[in-house]
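Supplementary Methods S3. Complex input for the protoporphyrin IX containing FE-bound model.
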Amino acid sequence: TNLVGLLVNAYHEVDEKNRLSIQDLLDECKTFYFSGQETVNFLLAWATLLLAIHTDWQDKVRPEVIEVFDNQNPDSEGLAKLKTITMIINKTLRLYPPISGVIRKVGREVQLGTLVLPTHSEADMRIIALHHDLDLWGGDVDLFKPERFADGIAEATKYNAADFMPFGLGPRSCIGMSFTIIQAKIALPMILQRYTINLSPSYVHAPLQRLTLRPQYGIQLFHSLHYDA
Ligand code: HEM
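Predicted complex, serialized as structure tokens:
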């Protein structure tokens, strides 16, 4: 059974209490389409941009990909062995979090430090601000240095989970997190197996921050064949 199958089953549920209306069913499909499609696209777009700029990292990661998969399509066994790709994915998610913030409605008045949040106000927590906070990440906060994630996320954040939260935190955090990482760990190696990526001179750096963080004018890259296929 796939996701649509589960939703259709819930629509046909005999117990009225647990039944989904057609509107609920459509809303769920839209949520999954929106949250699952654009976000992963942006992650892959920003990751390829960073690799195009930092070609030294392409040179570091490509041998790992070739060693694990040779020129074959990625398989699940190999995915666990990809260390450098994982570092690059985490680094991309820190610098360019595809969801730039999460919004919460304040249920009751609460004091956070010197700040009083009134009931019914909305708190927009800027993930991107957190990820670029000088106090948390230090003077080289804006630099692409995947080696920061060499020993995993916990080490990179000094065990403070809230410093790095591209998928949110707590009970409403992203349901698609593992799926996203798997997709990126399949797609990036498949690109690197085939192509050397270079930045086109026509690229204009213009990240647009709304709910998502998108490259406003797209990302123009040159892909040259990496080796004779
Ligand atoms: C780079 C990829 C992705 C990023 C950065 C991302 C980020 C996030 C964030 C920050 C939240 C929390 C929203 C909040 O707290 O208000 C969230 C929730 C959610 N995400 Fe993702 N997401 C990604 C991929 C996906 C994928 C692939 C799917 C589905 C296949 C997905 C489905 C969802 C759903 C359904 C929720 C709502 C969970 C709930 O409210 O209980 N996401 N995501």
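The chain has one domain: 42-225. The chain is about 45% helix and 15% strand.
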